[in-house]
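Hello,

I think I submitted the G4F job twice by accident. Can you confirm which output corresponds to this input? Input:
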Amino acid sequence: MPRALITGITGQDGSYLAEFLLARGYQVTGLRRRSSTQNLHRIQHLTGLSLVEGDLTDLASLVRVLDETQPDEVYNLAAQSFVGSSWQQPLATSDITGLGVLRLLEAIRTVNPRIRFYQASSSEMFGKAQTVPQHEGTPFYPRSPYGVAKLFGHWITVNYRESYGIFACSGILFNHESPRRGLEFVTRKISDGVARIKLGLARELRLGNLEARRDWGFAGDYVEAMWLMLQQPEPKDYVIATGETHTVREFVELAFAHVGLDWRDHVVVDPALFRPAEVDLLVGDASRARRELGWRPRVDFPTLVAMMVDADLERLGGGRRAGYSLGPDDGPTEAGPAPGGRSGTGDGGRRMPHRDDAGREGGAPGGGPG
Ligand code: NAP
Ligand code: G4F
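Support: Only one job matched these inputs. Its output is below.
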């Protein structure tokens, strides 16, 4: 039975990747950092997942975890991943999102250099995009401390591949979303806001730059590409994207229209939510992944928007779509027992209570960049 270690197991992608690998017969261990509150809501429905404690800022913990779990594959999904917060916490972002990759690669080199390694690189590295669409050869021009930190992680991954022969791949993933997306990211902020307005729980939705364009796909599709990269004969870097770009405004329009509302009656543009430096246009060319991995996105843009709005309506409205009537369960939900053979929610992952998603705009309190 192949063994995989996933960092960032409590996040959006960690949960989908764990599901994917468990379904393929992997023995999966998730690395989680110590938290004073429950944050297992995205993975509590999974059985057979083991958790170990460690932190990307603590090299000793990474060496210990690799030594104890002896994985064949390591997926590094952990990061301070919210671009807006990277201006509020540039040093912490660089330490976790940038140097954390180096610590993990050093731990791999020390414990077992035959481990296959996946690094979660990002289209944010293209920043002020130098070509349209962006592909593996497009020059990088990051526009945020997060993008700069990811660029370090990307190049140190390439460097460890070239210096030590480690099977290390960097997946340059464009934005991917789902009902499990954190509430601070714009798509989930919109789907949650639309559901609240439809259900009479809120009147307005405050957003920043509506003209930014992103290439949005479904997270469940993208984790398959991570796995495919580590199954190839040679390690390489791959762009993963849909090839379509849409403005934030288009996402807003579709999300409100899905519940029969006009977005112009509810959306307020708040200049405080604009970023110090913006990434205006991202659209990826995933032809290498299509050709060499046989990977394709399955969920299109309108389906993604509808899926996210419906999931938030169900979460906030007690699961009754017809009439969108209010249910009793609009607050934090008990996260339940930890995975690892013990019972989860019992819902097969279809309905996910979002304990720490009860807040609204998590990333930019006090009107900082959104
Ligand atoms: P996410 O939901 O924000 O999850 C981030 C994960 O990293 C969480 O599990 C978090 O744990 C963990 N983490 C943060 N700091 C850590 C530390 N010091 N040590 C150990 N774990 C730590 O992010 P995501 O959307 O799943 O994205 C997964 C990865 O892909 C990230 O590296 C992200 O930057 C990258 N990426 C994402 C996208 C996208 O569109 N989603 C696109 C390109 C690249 P806590 O629960 O304890 O905070
Ligand atoms: O949803 P976002 O916060 O995602 P962003 O900045 O594109 O970053 C995400 O995708 C990256 C891949 O390209 C990942 F690497 C990264 O970890 C993360 O997953 O913002 C998207 C756009 C931005 O242009 C932002 O200015 O939406 C715009 N926006 C407009 N109003 C807003 C808001 N973003 C947020 N978060 N909140 C707003 O109110």
